[in-house]
Amino acid sequence: MLVIRADLVEQMVAHARRDHPDEACGILAGPDDGSDRPQRFVPMENAERSPTFYRFDSMEQLRVYQEMDANDEVPVVVYHSHTATEPYPSRTDISLASEPFAHYVLVGTRDPEHHELRSYRIVDGEVTEEEVQVVENYMFAHTGTPDVPDKADVPDPAAP
């Protein structure tokens, strides 16, 4: 199951709407601590600028992955949009899936009034759809793992 904050969903959907009719793409980074909770929205440029295909720009991807490494982060979610079809991974999406621990989220924008959001695990070419739980924060999300507050829920001790 993917547990994800509502603000991150809103940012992915806004990015998908902004880039429509081309596919939008990006990553949600999270701590490399096994929590499997995305924290940071990282929109990326679709180097293909296409309504039917996406590809991260290789230089931008290198920079983003170096930044994640420096911050002890991993790509918890790899997302992109489908602008005219069902949000299900295409053969190309499946063949390019290279993050076995990531959630692959597809945002469907074919309906201008409503979006579709679906999440998958893609490992060795096998696609498994998973439930998505959208929460306001991770403090009280019921995931079967110990609840750890996300960064937005922890008061800053230096704050007045």
Notes on the protein architecture:
21% of the residues lie in helices and 31% in strands. The chain is an alpha/beta fold and 160 residues long. The strands form two sheets. Strands 3-2-4-5-6-7 form a six-stranded mixed beta sheet. Strands 1-8 form a two-stranded parallel sheet. The longest helix has 14 residues. The chain is globular. The N and C termini lie far apart (38 Å). 32% of the residues are buried. The model has no long low-confidence stretch (mean pLDDT 91).
Short characterization:
The protein is α/β, with parallel strands linked by helices.
Primary descriptors:
21% helix; hydrolase; M67 family metallopeptidase; two-stranded parallel ribbon; 3 helices; metal-binding; alpha/beta; 6-stranded mixed sheet; 160 residues; VirAsm_ModProt
- Total number of helical segments? 3
Characterize the biggest β-sheet: 6 strands, mixed
- What general form does the structure show? globular
- Give the SSE order as H and E letters: EHEEHEHEEEE
Termini separation comes to: 38 Å
Overall helicity: 10-25%
**Rg calc:** 16 Å
Mean pLDDT: 91
Largest beta sheet: strand ordering: 3-2-4-5-6-7
Secondary-structure class: alpha/beta
Q: Which blocks of ≥5 consecutive residues have pLDDT under 50?
A: none
Hey, roughly how much beta strand do the residues contain? 25-35%
Protein name: M67 family metallopeptidase
InterPro entries: JAB_dom_prok, JAMM/MPN+_dom, MPN, VirAsm_ModProt
Keywords: Hydrolase, Metal-binding, Metalloprotease, Protease, Zinc
Domain MPN: 2-126
